[in-house]
Specification:
By secondary structure, the protein is α/β, with parallel strands linked by helices. It is built from 41 helices and 29 strands. Strand 5 and strand 6 form a beta hairpin. Helix 12 packs antiparallel against helix 17 and helix 26 crosses helix 27. The longest helix is centred in the last third of the chain and has 22 residues. It is globular, with a radius of gyration of 30 Å.
C-alpha cells in the first residue's frame, strides 16, 4: 500500500497500471520529487508520476482520472516559471515519447508533437529556409507543448508571430477522453455528432463576447501587447469557426482545458541577413524613449525594421560583467533583411534615428555571426547569472510584465523606483522593450515572516502600477500559473473573468485538469509552497533548476537528468540539516545510488548548456570519492592498479584473447546470449565489437628515418592494450596506423619511455579517486616533458577523452588529439583525395567541451564528399567502462543513431575515442573507427 496516497489515487493507480507499464509509473518519493520539479520557484510533490507514450494512453488516462476524480497536471520539458507544471496529485509527462516533427508545404508549415524541443524544429526547418517563430529564451530546452500551452514568446515574435497567431490546427484530448483533431475533416464530423452541445456552447460564448462591445474592445486592447494572464479570449473575437476557436483557446491555457497531443503551425521565412548592435545610454529613461521611436520605423510594406530591442539596465549589465561604463543602460538592437542592400538601408535608418539621442558611445552594428552570438549570449545569460550569484539560501524569482509602448519611458522609471523602494538592491530589469515587455529578477528569502511580507508588499505594488495605473499585463510570456492566479480578475475585470470561468467549466466540468493554475480561490496561493534551495555542494549550489542542462544529459528519460540529480541531492542535504525525516533520508540515499550515481556518464556535456556552467559529472565524481576514501578497500585496489599498471594491462590481454577465442567458437548470437546472462550476474557486458588483445612492438617505436620535425606520440592505455575487433574494415591497430600517417607526412615519431606504466588518470578520476588520478597525470607529464625535450615538440594522444584531461591538468606543453593535430600540422603536407559515398562522424563529448567539434567535422569533409552528423545524438554513453558495466546507458544514448545511419546509406563511421567507437559499432549497425583511418585512406604525401 502506498501510504502517501489518498484512496482515490490508489484506485486511479490500479486502473492506470492495467494499460501503462510499471516502468513508466512512478510512486517512489525519489522519482516523484525529481520529476515533480520544474524551473519555477514553487514545490509540490506529486503522488504519482505517469510518463505517457501515445494518445491512446492519454485517452484512457483522462477517462480513469474522470472516474476516480483525480486531478492531472501535464508537463513536457519543465522549463516553466510560474508554477503551472507542478502538482500534488498526478503529474503526466509527455516528453521523450512525443518527438514527431513533419515538415509540410516545403517548409511553410510544420506538424509537431508536444515533446519536440523548439530549437530542434528550427534545425529541421533550416534547409527549407523557414523557422519556428515562437522564440522564448528557453527555446533550446523548452518543448513545443509547453511553448504553445503557455503562448511563450521571446525576443522577436512579439504578438504578431506567437503561437496563437501561427497555429493552424490542434490535436487534443478532452477531459472526457475524446480525441479531436481540428485540422481533420473526419475528426470534426465525428465530434460534431458526439459533442454537438459542446460546439453550440462555444458558439454561445463567441456570441456573448461579441455582443458586449466594451468587452470586445477590452480584449483587443489587452492583446495589442503581450499578455498571457488568464485564458486566451482573443479566439472568441478573431474566429467564427468553433473548431478554430477550440484550437486557439488551448493556446496559453496551461493544461487547464485539455491535453495537447499535436499542433500544425505556420512557419516564418528565415532572414538571410542580420545585424546587431549593443547601444549604450547613460540612463534608462533615454533608452526607453529611443525604443519608442525605433518601434515606429517601418519599411515600404509597413513592417518594422527593428526586430528586437532588448533592454538591459545597469544591474543586468553588471551581472554579466559588462565594463563599458558605470551606471549605463544598454539596448541590444537587431534588424534583419532578405538582401544585403536592404540590411544596409535598415542599419542606416536606425543609426540616423539613434543619432538624435544621447548615446554613451556611437552605435556600431555588426553582421558578423560570431560577434552577434556574443551579444545575444550576454542577453540570455542575465537570468542565470543573477540567479547563480544569489545569496546562499535565497530563491531566484523572475517576474514578467508588459506596458503599452507609449507608456514605456514613465512606466520603466517607476518600476525601477518601486523595486528599489522595497529594498531589492540586487534586482535587475531587462527584456523585450520593443514589445513593452520587461522581466525583473529578485533574489528572495522566505526564511522569516518579514521577508515573506516584503515580497507580498512588492507584488501588491507591482499589481497597482502595472494594472491599476497603466492597464498593462502582469504576465506577458511566462504564464499565469499559481504565481499570478490571484490577480486574473483584477487585471481583466468581472466580465472577462466570467467568460474565462465559463470556458473552463465547458472544457473541464469536473475541474480535474491542473487545478490551482489560472483559477485559484486562495488569494494568497502565490505566497505558499516555495521551493527550498538548501546549500548542498559548492559544485552545484548556483543551480537555479532551469532545466537547460537536460537537452545534453544522456540519461534524461532513462534514470535521472542532471537537474534531477541536483534536486535529489538538495533534498538529501535539507533532510540531513533538519533531521526531520530520517526514514525518508535513508530511502533517498539508498535510492539515489543507481539512477543518480551509477548511471551518470560524468561526460560534462550538461555544463555546455547550463547558463552558469555547472558540471553535474563533477558532483558524481565527488560522491564516488566519498565512497572510496583513502584507506578503503576500493581506494586500496585503485592504488594497487596505479602502482602495477603495466602488469594490469598484461592481465587484461589474456582476458581479451580468451573472449575472442570463445567468440570464434560460439559465434556472435550464442556469445551475445552468454554475455547477457553473465551480465545479469554482475559480469561486465561483452559486445561483438570488443577488440582483441594488442601490444605495441619495439619495431613500431623505432623510427625508420630521422626528420627535422618531430612529434611525441602517446598511445592511450586502451590503444596500447586493445587491437582490432573480429569484424572490422581496417587492417592495422590504431597505434600502427597513427605512426604510419605521421611518418607519411614527414614527421619523426617519438614515444615516451615506459609507456606501459603511463596513464592520463581518467580511469581513477571517473571512480572518484582524484588523488591517484592526479599522481598518474603527473607521472605522464614528466615523461612527456622529457620526450618532448622540454616542450620543444608537440604531443599527440590518440584518445580525445584522455587528451581532455591532459589539457586540464598539463599546461606546459602543446597537446593534441588526432583531428586537431592533423588539421593543424599535416593538412598542408598531405594531398586529400575525397572518397565517394557518405561517412558518419561522431563528435565526442570531450571534443565538444574542448571546442573542437568543428575541427573533426571539417577534417572529415576534406576526406569525403558527404559527411553525416547524426541528429540528436550527443554523448554515446559509453563513458569509459560504463558501456560494459551499465550497457543500458549506452543503448539509450544511441537509440536514435541507427535509423539516421541507415537512412543516409553510411557504411563506416569515424570518431576519435576507442571506447566510444566500441559502443557506436554495437548500436549503429556499421563499424566505427578512428578518423585517422579515413585520413590515411584518402591522402598521399605531397611532393
Amino acid at each position: 500500500m502506498q501510504k502517501h496516497m489518498t484512496d482515490k489515487h490508489r484506485r486511479f493507480l490500479r486502473a492506470v497500471r492495467a494499460f501503462i507499464p510499471r516502468e513508466r509509473v512512478y510512486t517512489d518519493y525519489l522519482r516523484r520529487l525529481a520529476w515533480g520539479t520544474d524551473a519555477g520557484f514553487y514545490r509540490l510533490v506529486p503522488q504519482i508520476v505517469v510518463r505517457v507514450a501515445d494518445e491512446r494512453e492519454v485517452v484512457r488516462l483522462m477517462q480513469a482520472a474522470g472516474e476516480s476524480g483525480v486531478p492531472l497536471t501535464f508537463r513536457a520539458a519543465g522549463t516553466s516559471l510560474s508554477g503551472q507544471a507542478v502538482s500534488d496529485s498526478v503529474l503526466v509527462v509527455a516528453g521523450k515519447h512525443w518527438e514527431g516533427c513533419e515538415v509540410l508545404d516545403g517548409g511553410r508549415a510544420v506538424r509537431l508533437q508536444p515533446g519536440v524541443v523548439g530549437a530542434r524544429v528550427n534545425e529541421v526547418l533550416k534547409p527549407y529556409g523557414y523557422r519556428f517563430s515562437p522564440d522564448p529564451a528557453s527555446i533550446k530546452s523548452a518543448m513545443v507543448g509547453g511553448i504553445v500551452m503557455n503562448n511563450a514568446s521571446g525576443m522577436n515574435c512579439g504578438t504578431h508571430a506567437n503561437s496563437d497567431r501561427v497555429l493552424l490546427s490542434a490535436r487534443l484530448v478532452l477531459a472526457d477522453g475524446t480525441l479531436l483533431d481540428t485540422g481533420d475533416d473526419a475528426s470534426r464530423r465525428a465530434f460534431s455528432q458526439s459533442h454537438g452541445g459542446f460546439l453550440r456552447a462555444v458558439e454561445a460564448l463567441r456570441g456573448r463576447v461579441r455582443g458586449n462591445k466594451s468587452l470586445t474592445e477590452r480584449i483587443l486592447h489587452k492583446y495589442s501587447i503581450k499578455n498571457v494572464m488568464g485564458l486566451n479570449l482573443l479566439p472568441l473575437v478573431r474566429f467564427d469557426d468553433p473548431f478554430d476557436i477550440i484550437a486557439h483557446l488551448l493556446v496559453g491555457s496551461e493544461g487547464t482545458l485539455a491535453f495537447l497531443a499535436g499542433v500544425t503551425m505556420r512557419t516564418e521565412r528565415e532572414y538571410e541577413h542580420k545585424a546587431s548592435a549593443m547601444v549604450y545610454f547613460s540612463d534608462i529613461g533615454e533608452a526607453s524613449r529611443a525604443v519608442v521611436e525605433m518601434n515606429k520605423l517601418q519599411d515600404a510594406a509597413g513592417e518594422r525594421i527593428v526586430h528586437s530591442a532588448e533592454m538591459l539596465d545597469r544591474k543586468s549589465l553588471a551581472s554579466v560583467g559588462d565594463t563599458t561604463g558605470e551606471g549605463l543602460t544598454a539596448v541590444l538592437t537587431e534588424t534583419k533583411a532578405h538582401t544585403a542592400d536592404e540590411l544596409a538601408a535598415n542599419v542606416a535608418r536606425i543609426e540616423a534615428l539613434l543619432g538624435r539621442f544621447a548615446l554613451y558611445v556611437p552605435a556600431r552594428f555588426t553582421g558578423d555571426p560570431a560577434e552577434q552570438a556574443k551579444y545575444w549570449a550576454v542577453r540570455s545569460g542575465i537570468f542565470p547569472a543573477v540567479g547563480g550569484g544569489r545569496r546562499p539560501g535565497t530563491t531566484c524569482l523572475i517576474e514578467d510584465v508588459a506596458f503599452h509602448i507609449e507608456d514605456l519611458p514613465r512606466a520603466t522609471a517607476e518600476l525601477q523606483a518601486l523595486i528599489a523602494r522595497h529594498g531589492y538592491d540586487d534586482a535587475c530589469i531587462y527584456g523585450h522593450a520593443l514589445e513593452g515587455n520587461y522581466h525583473f529578477i529578485i533574489n528572495q528569502s522566505f526564511s522569516d515572516p518579514a521577508e515573506a511580507a516584503r515580497y507580498e508588499a512588492l507584488m501588491d505594488d507591482v499589481v497597482e502600477l502595472v494594472v491599476g495605473k497603466y492597464d498593462g499585463s502582469l504576465k506577458a510570456e511566462h504564464g499565469t500559473g499559481r504565481n499570478m492566479a490571484p490577480f486574473v480578475r483584477r487585471e481583466w475585470g468581472d466580465d472577462a473573468f466570467a467568460v474565462m470561468r465559463a470556458v473552463k467549466e465547458l472544457f473541464d466540468p469536473a475541474g480535474v485538469l491542473n487545478p490551482g493554475v489560472i483559477f485559484n480561490d486562495d488569494p494568497r496561493c502565490h505566497l505558499s509552497h516555495f521551493k527550498p534551495l538548501p546549500l548542498t555542494d559548492p559544485l552545484v549550489d548556483r543551480c537555479i533548476e532551469c532545466g537547460f542542462c537536460e537537452v545534453n544529459c544522456l540519461t534524461c528519460g532513462l534514470t535521472l537528468s542532471s537537474r534531477q540529480r541536483i534536486v535529489v541531492r538538495r533534498e538529501i542535504a535539507r533532510l540531513k540539516a533538519s533531521g526531520e525525516n530520517p526514514r525518508r533520508l535513508k530511502e533517498l540515499e539508498r535510492g539515489y545510488r543507481y539512477p543518480g550515481e551509477q548511471t551518470c556518464a560524468g561526460d560534462g556535456l550538461c555544463s555546455t548548456s547550463c547558463p552558469v556552467g555547472i558540471n553535474t559529472g563533477e558532483l558524481t565524481h565527488a560522491l564516488r570519492a566519498l565512497r572510496m576514501p583513502p584507506g578503503s578497500a576500493g581506494h586500496a585496489a585503485g592504488e594497487f592498479a596505479a602502482r602495477h599498471f603495466a602488469g594490469l594491462k598484461d592481465t587484461l590481454r589474456p582476458v581479451l584473447t580468451m573472449a575472442d577465442a570463445t567468440h570464434r567458437v560460439l559465434g556472435t548470437p550464442a556469445m551475445t546470449a552468454v554475455a547477457k546472462g553473465l551480465h545479469a550476474l554482475g559480469i561486465p557486458r561483452w559486445l561483438a565489437s570488443m577488440p582483441r588483445a594488442y601490444r605495441i612492438t619495439g619495431v613500431l617505436k623505432t623510427a625508420p628515418v630521422q626528420e627535422s620535425d618531430k612529434v611525441v606520440y602517446f598511445p592511450s592505455c586502451i590503444n596500447q592494450t586493445m587491437g582490432l575487433p573480429r569484424e572490422t574494415p581496417v587492417a592495422e591497430p590504431l597505434a600502427e596506423k597513427m605512426a604510419a600517417l605521421l611518418r607519411k607526412a614527414g614527421y619523426e615519431v617519438i614515444f615516451p619511455e615506459n609507456m606501459e606504466r603511463l596513464c592520463c588518470g581518467t580511469i581513477w578520476e571517473s571512480k572518484g579517486m582524484a588523488d591517484i588520478a592526479d599522481r598518474k597525470t603527473a607521472e605522464l607529464e614528466e615523461a612527456l616533458w622529457r620526450a618532448s625535450e622540454g616542450g620543444r615538440w608537440p604531443v599527440l594522444c590518440d584518445q580525445s577523452p584522455c587528451l581532455h584531461r591532459m589539457r586540464e591538468k598539463i599546461g606546459r606543453m602543446k597537446l593534441y588529439e588526432p583531428a586537431e593535430f592533423i588539421w593543424t600540422f599535416l593538412r598542408e603536407r598531405l594531398e586529400f583525395r575525397p572518397q565517394p559515398g557518405p561517412v558518419a562522424v561522431h563528435v565526442t563529448c570531450s571534443m565538444r567541451r574542448m571546442g573542437l567539434a568543428g575541427v573533426i567535422v571539417s577534417l572529415a569533409q576534406l576526406c569525403a564528399r558527404e559527411v553525416v552528423i547524426p541528429e540528436e545524438v550527443g554523448c554515446c554513453g559509453f563513458a569509459g567502462d560504463r558501456g560494459f558495466t551499465h550497457p543500458e546507458v549506452n543503448a539509450y544514448a544511441l537509440r536514435k543513431l541507427r535509423p539516421v545511419v541507415e537512412r543516409a546509406g553510411v557504411r563506416v563511421g569515424y570518431s576519435n575515442s576507442r571506447t566510444c567507437e566500441i559502443g557506436l559499432t554495437a548500436h549503429a549497425g556499421v563499424p566505427y573507427v578512428s578518423i585517422v583511418y579515413l585520413v590515411d585512406a584518402c591522402t598521399v604525401a605531397k611532393r
